[in-house]
Amino acid sequence: MKLAVIYDDVFLKHDLPTHPENALRLKYFMKPIFEAELPIIKPKQVSYELLRAIHSENYITDVITSCRERAPRFFDPDTYYNQFTCDSALMAAGANELGVEILKSGEFDAVFCAVRPPGHHAERDRAMGFCIFNNVAVAAVKALSLDFERVFIVDFDAHHGNGTQSTFYDNPNVFYFSTHQYPFYPGTGSEKENNDHILNVPMGEGSGDREYMEVYSGIFRKTVREFEPEVILVSAGYDLHSDDPLTGLEVSDSGVEFVVSQIVESAKELSVPILFTLEGGYNLRALERCSRISMNVITS
Ligand SMILES: [Zn+2]
Fold it and tell me: What is the 202 CA–ligand 1 centroid distance (Å)?
């Protein structure tokens, strides 16, 4: 596929070096992208109207005013902010908005938003789990507004995307498919929460390549085919990797390659564009390898 990466150094300014979700993650993730000389596009800030479709006005105002403080502080026990967090978060959401516009234009048929902070835990009125604004939800709402009639979100981050699920729980035009360690943080994502357009596939601790290959070659491919989306969005969290320090899944490099390949094959089979946005992944070396693997699969 013809791939563009959306990235800006502003994503490195939201930082707390002692925290697992720190700026070094994105530096490592970008190495293979710079090496391969992939086209890099600068993001813009998300439009306020679009952000307001996903987050409450009070919460958006709270983020903007909080980030005036200089020393790192916390929205919740996991989620820090500093004086650059607001800029980074508005641009991370804006990268997803721009990414969908680029796909609609047809100039590229694949976009990777290499952004921080991540987004899939962010709820309508609160930050959570290292996430400030829900980036993939921004992409989905933007896609619907540009007449992509059915949007398929696949989330392979090791954690369940509670914020994404709750955003689209009552919207049958958006399918949310998630594999994640369960039971695990954030506690949601059981099969009991499934409906006709929400499909959680909980993975037990220690699940590895065999289990992931079965899910992604089987139920995942079948579900995408049946939903017939006009665009595919991917919450690409690489903390499913066996080297990740925060999680207990055992997916190897080749398992990650298999998962990404199945997603890209689905897009090719349906002739639809695809947008990836970076979520988790906390082992720097594994993150760099997963970036190289993903970019190779997408551009092949
Ligand atoms: Zn995660």
Answer: 14
Mean pLDDT of 223-252: 98
pLDDT tens by residue, 80-136? 999 899 999 999 999 999 999 999 999 999 999 999 999 999 999 999 999 999 999
CB 23 within 8 A of CB 12: yes
In whole numbers, what is the pLDDT of the chain averaged over residues?
97
Number of domains, the chain: 1
Given a cut of 90, whether residue 267 has pLDDT beyond it is yes
Nearest to 151, CA basis, from 272, 3, 271: 272
Catalytic residues: 121
The reported pLDDT for the residue numbered 191 is 98
- Separation of CA 74 and ligand 1 centre (Å): 18
CA distance 192 to 110: 33
Task: Supply the DSSP string of 61-123, one letter for each residue.
Answer: HHHHHHTT-SS-EEEETTEEE-TTHHHHHHHHHHHHHHHHHHHHHTS-SEEEE--SS--TT-B
Q: Which long-range contacts (CB under 8 A, 24 or more apart) does 192-199 make?
A: 193/165, 195/169, 196/172, 197/168, 197/171, 197/172, 197/227, 198/165, 198/168, 198/169, 199/175, 199/223
- 42: domain range? 3-299
What's the CA-to-centroid distance between 107 and ligand 1, angstroms? 31
- If you average pLDDT over residues 195-219, what whole number do you get? 98
Predicted confidence band at 66 (pLDDT cuts at 50, 70, 90)?
confident
In 3D, which of 184, 191, 187 has the Cα closest to residue 248?
Answer: 184
CA 274 – CA 47 distance, rounded (Å): 21
User: Domain containing 130 — which CATH number?
Assistant: 3.40.800.20
